[in-house]
Amino acid sequence: MPASSTPRRSLVAAATLPLLFGALAACGYGSSADKDDTAKATPAANGKKLSADSVKIGYFPNLTHATPLIGVQEGLFQKELGGTAVKTATFNAGPSEIEALNAGSIDIGWIGPSPAINGFTKSKGQSLRIIGGSASGGVKLVVNPSKVKSLDDLKGKNIATPQLGNTQDVAFLNWIAEKGWKVDAQSGKGDVNVVRTDNKITPDAFKSGSVDGAWVPEPTASKLVSEGGKVLLDESDLWPDKQFVITNIIVSQKFLKEHPDVVEAVLRGSVKTNEWIGSHPDQAKASANAALKKLSGKALPADIIDPAWTSIKTLDDPLAATLQAQADHAVKAGLLKQPDLKGIYDLAPLNKVLKSLGKPEVADAGLGVK
Length: 370
What we know:
By secondary structure, the protein is of the alpha/beta class. The chain is built from 13 helices and twelve strands. The strands form two sheets. The protein has a seven-stranded mixed β-sheet, sandwiched between helices. Strands 8-7-9-6-10 form a five-stranded mixed β-sheet, with helices on both faces.
């Protein structure tokens, strides 16, 4: 369906139904590392220690988490933190990162919209705040061009999504509904057969012909293209200004209250890392790939990282309106009772950093703390 024929914001949703909580992987898009890795950076020798000896940050070994990958790799976070040490841990599933945040194993994390909403609502608004944005885009519908010539050809085909109820799954379910087609959300059966397949398995399923395409994030989308697939739709084209949140920055409310200076320093490091990525795109891509190799043991080949990199936009704005839209659409899909997201954002520290650096402030779409 052409983007012009339907309200663009009604095309994507984040599923946060409690029974799906254990299944949500939200940001582990195609990552090959299945363990937590903890590393400690060396504090600046002459740096001033902030109110905490260290800060523990969590993220995924994935391109949609380019900001922490590069910020840690290049020492940009440590530079802002001075004598306060950076400790890192990597995750492959949103729920495990939320659990780590709740347990105090990490203080700040980069994470997708689904687990951020889920963590906030399950704790009745007590566990976390979203304090910044990190990335937009990087989601595509890739198909076997010999079987699917146009969007209308998807009817009757087997199309993979990462998991029942994850952000891409609900995005595809909503897109199908807007076409006027019917699919049972739970089973995936209907006018289109939605096949829930782990991103690590999807390329093999695509090669074998068991799926005819996939609505997936990067780098899985580019892996499929390298296997002969064709990009039929870039989800960014369905959103106003071609932007929608794919990665947020969250913080433990306890840590935010006790160490606001550390949170501010991490946010300054994030903003400066995003600025460096924008001004050094090739160097940044190489840095991200070096970090991926260090974490997972394998770098991405050029035919995968090059197109994947260009489809992901790093930014400071959390794109709060798109988070609300995603939650609303999950309700429409019947996967979520209407959540109260007021207070999920606290953008005051980020806006303080942005103002100090001469950058425009960002908005919370009415979902900020009072």
